[in-house]
Design a protein that fits this description.
Helix content: 25-40%
CATH architecture of the largest domain: 2-Layer Sandwich
Shape: elongated
Distance between the termini: 61 Å
CATH class of the largest domain: Alpha Beta
Largest sheet: 7 strands, mixed
Strand content: 15-25%
Number of helices: 10
Number of strands: 23
Structural class: alpha+beta
Number of domains: 3
Radius of gyration: 27 Å
CATH topology of the largest domain: Chloramphenicol Acetyltransferase
CATH superfamily of the largest domain: Chloramphenicol acetyltransferase-like domain
């Protein structure tokens, strides 16, 4: 037998550390190669660490909630001599799918073990599966049968939030009946109207707390902490400059309004204005490639591919998935990817492959009515563009006539170490030209 260490993997570009959210194993557990052993959070994504070996968990070196640098030892496993070949190591540019999918390459899990209870009454058999300690504790405290809980995590794994949502919704009648058969507890005499069983909810670390003064304390989630850390780094390290340009998109609005219903009926998803903006940005980036660069301390790397990061918000976090090679796609293709990525994010199915490789960020701040804003650059990119709300305004047109026109502000934050106002002004002017002359520029949807 040999003791082998498992280290914190690099879970994406520029990721230098990860936080152990929860252990999925305990000392003495038998694990197979590629089995998930811990849930981790980085400033890029939530993922699972797979076991690099088949063996017995010897020691959990890292504790839950601890943040460790890439390469730090998180646990040790006792393995047989034949099992010394480690699992593939994730690279900075291409993270192993074993880490992302937590099981695509590992051995297929065995069928759930069914445990018969001494009680002969008919009730569902409980399946034994892999659950985090936090999930097991919460389920135990509230007498929850996890076989009844629908998982929303990776590979339908049950998370703490799933259990809390299950408790908040109230147990199904069947499990309430089961609980009453499993426990015999003396109860005080109740009126008929009082004989209702309500599950006791144990406050969790994710719940808000009302203080004596009336203030509300809201715990900071690991995702919010990661966002905060990245934003602080960007604002401290990058000398931000900012400029704005007004664009008349009346022609674009009229064109999109003419075809949007037919497009939705034919394709099954919406043709948004944002798809046109991304296409115009990608074309302008081809003409001004320095803006499609990243900062690498002692050098500037001008990226060949044009991969646009777009912001997608959920109820409690903001994610930035990437549309690859946007310059090679039609507006229809871009609109389809916007729809698909937004659905993936909101369904909690985002993987590392969806957020890697971004070279420039476009943020659709106009979707919630903003007309002017200054974005914080998505480190280590060179710039971020905010597309604001399209607003109808009176504008002076040819012959000093006043006419209603559809106007949008494009707000660009730039890294002054890489870029200056001249090239950014030319870039924005080119985006403006493309958007204001949809027909002349032949920005065909297909």
């Amino acid at each position: 037998m040999t003791i082998q260490n498992i280290t914190m993997p690099q879970l994406g570009e520029s990721v230098t550390e990860g936080k152990i959210d929860s252990w999925l194993v305990k000392v003495g557990d038998k694990v197979n190669k590629y089995d998930p052993i811990a849930e981790v959070t980085t400033d890029k994504v939530n993922a699972e660490i797979p076991s690099s070996f088949t063996g017995i968990v010897k020691e959990l070196i890292a504790i839950e909630g601890e943040t460790l640098p890439v390469g730090a030892i998180v646990c040790s496993i006792e393995v047989e001599g034949a099992e010394l070949q480690p699992a593939p190591v994730a690279s900075d540019s291409n993270v192993s799918s074993a880490i992302l999918n937590a099981g695509v390459q590992r051995q297929q899990p065995q069928p759930p073990v069914v445990v018969e209870t001494p009680d002969k009454s008919e009730r569902p058999k409980r399946a034994v599966g892999r659950f985090s300690p936090a999930v097991l504790l919460l389920a135990s405290q509230n007498d929850i049968d996890l076989a009844h809980v629908q998982g929303t995590g990776l590979e339908n794994r049950i998370t703490r939030k799933d259990v809390e949502a299950y408790i908040a919704a109230g147990k199904p009648e069947r499990q309430v009946a089961e609980s009453s058969q499993l426990q015999v507890v003396e109860q005080p005499q109740l009126n008929e109207s009082e004989k209702v069983s309500v599950p006791k909810v144990t406050p969790s670390r994710t719940e808000s707390v009302l203080t004596a003064s009336g203030d509300i304390e809201i715990p900071v989630t690991s995702v919010r902490k990661a966002i905060a850390k990245n934003m602080v780094r960007s604002s401290l390290e990058i000398p931000h400059a900012w400029m704005m340009m007004e664009v008349d998109v009346t022609e674009l609005v009229e064109y999109r309004d003419r075809i949007k219903s037919e497009f939705k009926q034919k394709e099954g998803f919406n043709l948004t204005y944002f798809a046109f903006f991304l296409k115009a940005v990608s074309q302008a980036l081809k003409e001004y490639p320095l803006i499609n660069s990243v900062w690498a301390e002692d050098k500037i790397i001008q990226k060949k591919d044009i991969n646009l990061s777009i912001a997608v918000a959920t109820d409690d976090a903001l994610f930035v998935p990437v549309i690859k090679n946007v310059d090679e796609k039609s507006i229809k293709g871009i609109a389809k990817e916007i729809h698909e990525l937004s659905t993936i994010v909101r369904n909690g199915k985002l993987k590392m492959e969806h957020i890697q490789g971004g070279t420039f960020t476009v943020n659709n701040t106009g979707s919630f009515g903003s007309i002017q804003s200054m974005g914080i650059i998505n480190y280590p990119q060179a710039a971020i563009l905010q597309v604001e709300s399209i607003v109808k305004k009176p504008v002076i047109v040819q012959g000093n006539m006043i006419a209603p026109r559809h106007i949008v502000n494009l707000c660009l934050s730039l890294d002054h170490r890489i870029l200056d106002g001249l090239i950014c002004g030319k870039f924005l002017s080119r985006v403006k030209e493309l958007l204001e002359n949809v027909d002349k520029q032949k920005m065909s949807v297909y």
